[in-house]
Amino acid sequence: MGVEQRNKLPIISTDDPESTILGPEPTKHRPWDDLAPPKVPDKMEERKPIPGLEEHEKDFQERKALRREAIREGRDPLVEIWKRDRKKKQQKAQHD
């Protein structure tokens, strides 16, 4: 490329914030914009309590304690949890 050709290339101003090396950003819709994470509002909305979360947490803690106890006593923790769940299902069936 000769010096004369280089001098004829357009000069892109870097003072313009909209301008990039490739020129101004396109204004048409770009499909990859849909993949961007949603904008987070400045103030987070108060979260609503999840229904059934307390019961789930209580069940999780019981399973955790049962698992530790079974391991301590040398039993299979999965069998112990299965037995407990089976008893709960039987009790629930009797109440219904």
User: What separation lies between the terminal Cα atoms?
Assistant: 87 Å
Q: Can you tell me the overall shape?
A: elongated
* Class based on secondary structure composition and strand pairing: mainly alpha
Total helix count? 3
> What order do the SSEs take from the amino end to the carboxyl end, as H and E?
HHH
Q: Radius of gyration in whole Å, from Cα?
A: 32 Å
* Quaternary structure annotation: single chain
Strand runs, count: 0
The averaged pLDDT comes out at 77
Biggest sheet descriptor = none
Low-confidence sequence ranges: none
**Percentage of residues in strands:** under 5%
State the share of residues found in helices, binned by percent. Answer: 40-55%
Structural account:
This protein has helices at 3-8, 53-72, 77-95. The longest helix is centred in the middle third of the chain and has 20 residues, at 53-72. Helix content is 47%, strand content 0%. 0% of the residues are buried. The termini are far apart. The chain has a domain at 53-95. It has 96 residues and is mainly alpha-helical.
